[in-house]
Records
---
Amino acid sequence: MQIVNVREARLLQELLRAFYVDDDDYAHVHAFNHTPDRFDFEAVLKKLGHGGSAAGSAGGTEGP
C-alpha cells in the first residue's frame, strides 16, 4: 500500500527542510508543537503562496 507517491514525498521533504532550516519559518513549527493555541495556519498558507482563508483553499486551487 502506497501512502504517498514520489512527487508528494519530495515536496514534503522540501517543505520540512525549508521550515526547519530558516529561523523565521521554524517559528511556525515551534508554535505548532509547543503553543498550538497560537499556531497561525493562515500565516503558513500565506507563506506557501496559498492566500485566502483555510476554508477557501481546501480544494488546493485558487480562482482565476
Note: The two ends are 36 Å apart (CA to CA).
---
Amino acid sequence: CCFSHDGKYFLTSSTDNTARIWNATDGTLVKTLRHEGEVFSCAFTLDDQLIVTACSDNTVRIWDTESGQLK
C-alpha cells in the first residue's frame, strides 16, 4: 500500500483483482478500481492526480484519482 503525497488517501492492491482508494483520515473506502487479474502494485503520481496499477494479466492502468475512471 502507499499514501498519496498530500496524505489525503492511501492505496491498497489485492489478489481479488482490485486496487482500493481509502480515506487516510477515517479509513473509509473511497473507490474500487477493478482489473482482470490480481493487482500487484499501485502508486500515486507525484501530483496525486493519477494512480498507476500493475496487474498479473500483464497490464498497467492509469486512473484519475478523483473520479476513479481509466485515463
Note: The chain is about 0% helix and 50% strand.
---
Amino acid sequence: MTMMHQFHKKNGDDAYRKEDYQNAIFHYTLAIETARSELHDEHLPEKKHELASLFSNRAAASTKMSHFHEALHDCDCAIAVDSLYDKAHFRKAQLLTMHGMLDEAIEACQEVLSLDSNNKQAQKELQVITTIQTKYNKADDLLQRLYTPDNNISRDDVLVVANNIEWIAKKCVAWTDIQVLQAQVLWSLGHSQQALELTDKLLKQEGTTELSSRLHNLRATIFVAMGDSEQAIGHLRTVLAHERDNERAVKLFAQLRTFLESKAVADQYYKSKKYDDALVQYEIAMKLSPSPNYLAKLHFNRACTHASLGRHDLSIADCNESIRLNPEYIKAYMRRAASLRELPMDREARYESAIEDYKVARQLSKTKRQSREIKLKLRETKWVLAELLKKNNVQKMQRRHTAPMMVSPDCSPSLSYLRKSAPQLQMSKSNDASEVTMSPRSRTSSASSWNAINPRSRTSSASSWNALDILGA
C-alpha cells in the first residue's frame, strides 16, 4: 500500500524533472508534512533516511529557484533528522560555497568524506573551494591597493583580477562580497556609473553593518573620483555614524575636507579679483587634490584666472591640462576657445582651432540651453573668421595690382613713359595716329623697317602699351 507522502514525493519528482520547481516545492512540502504523521517510527534508520531525503529534495528545488536561505535551512533539517545522510551534507557544502561561507563549506565537505572517504564529488568540491579562497584573497588584496596613493597597478592587472572574480561569481552566486569586488573592478576600469548602479542595488538588500560600510566607502570613493564632493561626504558621514573609527572613512573625509577648504580660499580670491593670490592658492590646492577630476577643475579655475590677467597663452596651457585629465570637461573647451580668439598672432589658425573646440563642446553638451549657447558662440566665431579671410583676400588682390608700380624704372619702360615730357608725349601720339592711318601692309612694313633699325625700341613700345592698359589709359 502506497502511503500519501510517497504519492506527493512522486508528484514532486515529476515536477522537478519538468523544471517546474515551484510546483515541486509545493509537493515536497506536502510529502514532508504527511510523512511526519505517517512515519510513527522516525527513529528507525530507514524512516529517518526517507524523511531526510524529502528535506534534501526540497532544498534542491529551492536552490533552482535561487531561494538559498530556505535551501540551507532544509539541509540543516535533513541533517538533524539523519546525521549520516551524506547527500544532505554535500548539498549543504554546495550552498555554503554559493554564499561565500568557505570555511563552513570546507567543514561540510570534510563531514561527507568522514562518512565516505571515496566520495569524488566532495573531493572535487573541496578543491574548488580552495581555489576560490586563493583567487579571492589575491583579488581583494590588489583591489584594496587601489585606494592607496601612487599605486603601480596596471589596467592589465585589473583585467586579470576581473577574470578571476567572474569565475568566482559563477561558483558563488549568492556571495555579496564578490559583487562588491565586481563594483570595484568596474570603477577601476572607468565604468563609474555601472559601479554606482551595482552598489545601489546591493545597499537595498539586507546585509551586515560591515558590508554596508564597505559599500558606502566604495561609493564615496567613486564620487570623489567623479568630482562630486557633496555625494561623497554624505556616504562618508553614513559610515562614520555607525563606525566612528572606520579608518578608510576617517582618512578620506579628512583629505576631502582639507582640499575643499583650500579650494574655497582660492575661489574667494578670484571672486575678489585678487588674481595673483588666487594663482598661489590654486597651486596649493592642486597638491591636495584627491582625484584627477578635481585637478581638472583646478586647472580650469587657474585658466580663468590667467585669462582675467590677459595671459591667454598660460590660460590655454591650463585648459590643455584640464582636458587631458577630463576629456569631457565642456567648460575647459569653452575657455580654451575664448582664449584662442584673444591671441593676436596667426589669427586665422587660432579661430579655426577655436571653432573645433566649440564643436566638441557642443557634442558634449547635455542640455538644450547649453547647446544653444555654444551654437551662438560657434556662429559668431565662424563669422569673424570669414571676415578675416575676406579682408586678407582683398589685401592680397591690392598687393597684386599695385606690384608693377613698385618695380625700379630700369626694369619698367612704362615708368619711363610716364616721366616723358609733354613734347615727347605729343610726338608719341602723332606717331600712333599716323600708324593708325596707314594701310595694314604699310604699317607692317614700317614697323618691320623700324624694328630692323632699332630692335630695342620694339620691346619698349610693347611695354609702354602694357603699362597704359594696366593704368587704364
Note: The mean pLDDT is 83.
---
Amino acid sequence: RYVASGLMPCDDGPAVAAFVDLMKTLLTEYSPSQLDERSLGEALIIKVESRSDVFTESQIKGITEAYEESFERGLLFQGLDDGASDPDGVLEPLWDDESVEGDIGGAEPW
C-alpha cells in the first residue's frame, strides 16, 4: 500500500507495469482467511483504485480481479475446511416425508 502511495505520475511505464505484475502475483498468492493479510489486501486495492494518475484502467482492473479471485477462492476453501464436505447437505429438506404425511403441528389430516 505504501509503495503504491509513493509512485508518481512521472514514473516510467515499464516500471509501473512490473510493479502491477508483482502486485497481481502477491494478491493471487495471499491468504484472505488471515485477517491481517485480508485487511492489507483491501487497503492496497483502495489505494490502487485512487491512483488513476499512475495506473491505467486496465492495470487497476487486473489488480482488482486478482484480489477478488483470491478472496473468492479463500471463501471456497474456508467452506471446505469448516467440515462442509457434503455440498448437497445444504439442499436437504428440513423435514422428512413421514412427518409431512402425518400430523403437522396438531392440525387434522386432510
Note: The helical segments are 2-6, 13-29, 35-49, 57-81, 97-101.
